[in-house]
Backbone:
């Protein structure tokens, strides 16, 4: 294996919500960072991926590039697999050639969502959607190719500045509608991109120092909520009546792709890397709140 000739970090999908946050936080730390959008690095092109990684020779690659339109994925399996399943494999082989570490972002959708306890990193996956199956394929490509330098970071319920997400949609709807109906039978861990970016930096730094073993990690803010619970907290932080949020069931909001009823991810693995679990989701949301804006609805938003 070759050794990387740079201390820099390369971020794919850098135009996305998490990619922008991660890039900004690396820059604030003075870490050399190469933020690349799809025009500069198309992860579905194996030759292109090899050439780009060889050119920059980063110490760490963080793959934030993904197909995330969950409902649209149901009718585009081949197209989605190229991005979510094959793309990470192309990056992994390029990283193997240069000695770079690879941090691959993944999702709670790799699980069936049927447990009544937090999913552990070692629990067997059982995806029920095209999105979940393709993301699992990407995980396996990374771990098979880079058993000693590949890191899969599963997260869920992301929100942040600069992208369509549930929290920003609730902020907008609070100003537009008297009441909002939100799903109350899906459970997960709301996660701020700011905290996730910090955790990715901590994991990559620990990996470079040899204190974080390769493999799977779960990275969500601690605690759990339903979408209804999260919406009420958003309304509370806005200073408006949380009673304006009305609970509904998933059956009342039919979607092409099934949503996991249980997306709570355990974070036991962090102690292996010498890190504590991420903080409670309410604390994170309160800090993030002033930075959030009001984008158009995303197809993943469980509201009507």
Residues:
């Amino acid at each position: 294996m070759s050794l990387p000739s740079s201390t820099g970090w390369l971020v794919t999908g850098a135009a996305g919500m998490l990619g922008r946050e991660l890039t900004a936080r690396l820059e604030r730390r003075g870490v050399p960072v190469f933020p690349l959008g799809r025009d500069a690095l198309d992860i579905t092109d194996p030759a292109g991926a090899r050439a780009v990684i060889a050119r920059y020779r980063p110490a760490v690659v963080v793959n934030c590039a993904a197909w995330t339109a969950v409902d649209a994925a149901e009718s585009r399996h081949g197209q989605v697999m190229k991005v979510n399943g094959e793309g990470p494999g192309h990056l992994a082989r390029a990283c193997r050639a240069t000695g770079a570490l690879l941090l691959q972002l993944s999702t709670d959708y790799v699980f069936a969502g049927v447990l009544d306890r937090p999913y552990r990193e070692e629990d067997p996956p059982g995806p029920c959607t095209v999105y979940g199956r393709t993301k699992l394929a990407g995980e396996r490509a990374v771990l098979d190719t880079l058993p000693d330098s590949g890191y899969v970071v599963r997260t869920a319920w992301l929100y942040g500045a600069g992208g369509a997400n549930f929290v920003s949609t609730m902020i907008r709807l609070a100003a537009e509608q008297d009441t909002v109906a939100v799903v109350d039978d899906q459970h997960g861990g709301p996660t701020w991109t700011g905290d996730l970016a910090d955790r990715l930096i901590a994991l990559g730094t620990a990996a470079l120092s040899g204190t974080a073993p390769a493999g799977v990690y779960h990275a969500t803010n601690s605690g759990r909520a339903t979408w209804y619970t999260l919406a009420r907290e958003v309304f509370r932080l806005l200073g408006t009546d949380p009673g304006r949020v009305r609970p509904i069931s998933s059956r009342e909001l039919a979607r092409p792709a099934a949503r996991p009823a249980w997306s709570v991810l355990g974070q036991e693995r962090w102690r292996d890397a010498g890190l504590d679990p991420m903080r409670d989701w309410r604390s994170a949301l309160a800090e993030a709140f002033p930075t959030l804006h009001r984008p158009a609805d995303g197809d993943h938003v469980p509201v009507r």
About this structure: The radius of gyration is 19 Å. The chain has nine helices and twelve strands. Residues 215 and 287 are 30 Å apart (CA to CA).
